[in-house]
Design goal:
Radius of gyration: 20 Å
Largest sheet: 9 strands, mixed
Order of helices and strands: EEEEEHHEHEHEEHEHHEEHHE
Distance between the termini: 36 Å
Number of strands: 13
Strand content: 15-25%
Structural class: alpha/beta
Length: about 400
């Protein structure tokens, strides 16, 4: 679920906020998603043409071990992230943003989604991405790993290691989950147009594969949806997490065509399926869900239709496609995530249908109380998709 969520303790539904500037709320620093401080220990890329250093302004950069950033610090006005800021305790109405990538300069011509405009949704907040990382990891479909491993093991040129493009990488949770499940040397190319998230992803990236082989990382700042075969030259795999549902049908088609043209596989996880189950149930559940799904489809975005559209698009390009469920299962141990998800879910529904506001405020207040008491369980349905395009280089 990628929509806006608030950090309020009460049930009032706020007006949909604008993006939080990355340089405000610098009263505290966030530790990395694995629980440790953000340390600059990502593997140094030795690929030709890479530029070492923080990705605050470069289109493409590699992160050298021990050189990317200091061990601690806060977000500076200059834009170089050495820690992720969070609101102070007094900022009771702080917003954790979960909507799509925001405006950013320095786009690569081959990695372009659409021209940014004033109506573009705000970028993802590290706080929200960190909050959901554990649930994402538990939900992803492990059944897709074996066919992926078989495909990657039989790729031509595998001896040189895997090249994996993570599009819309956010804080890099996909790499932290997937890299340790795959054997062999890996070079990850992280795509996002938010330099703060790119830096976060690079310094918190995994260091080794399942068999102990080296994992290196490179960042590319730019938009994420229209990867061309040129951008994917030499790629073994394209990955994304919670991305498809914020793309249009045209953008998904372009992504499928790029993967087919490059002959690489695609593992696209955690796309919303449009179904939610809350226990205990409430008569307003279905109406909120319907309004939220309509909000997901606004402005031509695919929302819960994304996996079906992607399966069709990849199949049209000759790929073999598998789809597996990947639901969040949220109980008392995930109450913080559940509360933020509830606020975002209900808030998006009310934005879509303002006439729901009065009933939705009562509903949200009661749901948050049940969540706090450990009495609420939620299943948020997602789907994972594996597309195996015909590899180039003569392999079958």
């Amino acid at each position: 679920m990628r929509k806006t969520a608030t950090a309020r303790s009460g049930g009032t539904i706020p007006a949909q906020p604008g993006p939080r500037d990355a340089t405000d709320a610098t009263q505290a620093t966030r530790r990395g998603p694995q629980g440790g401080a953000l340390a600059a220990e990502a593997g140094q890329s030795d690929r030709p043409g890479s530029v070492t250093g923080a990705p605050s302004g470069d289109v493409s950069s590699s992160v050298a071990a021990g050189k990317a950033a200091p061990q601690s610090g806060i977000v500076s006005a200059g834009g170089d992230m050495t820690g992720v800021s969070v609101p102070a305790e007094s900022d009771a109405d702080a917003v954790i943003l979960g909507a799509g990538p925001g405006i950013g300069p320095g786009e690569r011509a081959t990695v372009r989604l659409r021209d940014a405009g004033p109506d573009d949704p705000p970028r993802y907040a590290p706080e929200w991405l960190e909050l959901r990382e554990g649930a994402d990891a538990a939900a992803r479909a492990h059944d897709l790993l074996d066919p992926l491993r078989i495909r990657l093991a039989n790729l031509p040129g595998r001896a040189g290691g895997l090249v994996i493009h993570d599009v819309g990488c956010g804080t890099g949770s996909m790499g932290r989950w997937l890299a340790p499940h795959l054997d062999g040397a890996q070079h990850w190319v992280l795509h996002d147009r938010d330099p703060y998230l790119l830096h976060f992803a690079a310094v918190a990236s995994p260091r080794s594969a399942a068999d102990g082989s080296r994992v290196t990382v490179e960042t590319r700042r730019g938009d994420i949806g229209r990867l061309t075969p040129d951008a994917l030259l030499g790629a073994s795999l394209v990955t994304a997490s919670a991305l498809l549902d914020v793309l249009t049908r045209e953008e998904v088609g372009t992504l499928a065509a790029a993967c087919a043209g490059a002959g690489c596989a695609a593992l696209l996880t955690l796309s919303v399926a449009g179904r939610v189950e809350l226990t205990p149930s409430d008569p307003l559940d279905a109406e909120i869900a319907e309004a939220f799904n309509a909000h997901q489809r606004r402005s031509g975005l695919l929302g819960p239709d994304a996996v079906t559209a992607a399966a069709e698009a990849f199949s049209e390009h000759g790929a073999t496609v598998q789809v597996h469920p990947s639901p969040w299962r949220l109980g008392p141990d995930e109450s913080a995530l559940t509360a933020q998800w509830l606020r975002g879910w209900v808030g998006a529904a009310v934005e879509q249908r303002p006439e729901l506001r009065e009933r939705a405020e009562r509903y949200l207040s009661e749901r948050l109380a049940a969540c706090q008491a450990g009495e609420l369980r939620v299943v948020v349905h997602h789907s994972d998709l594996l597309a195996l395009s015909r590899p180039t280089g003569g392999a079958s």
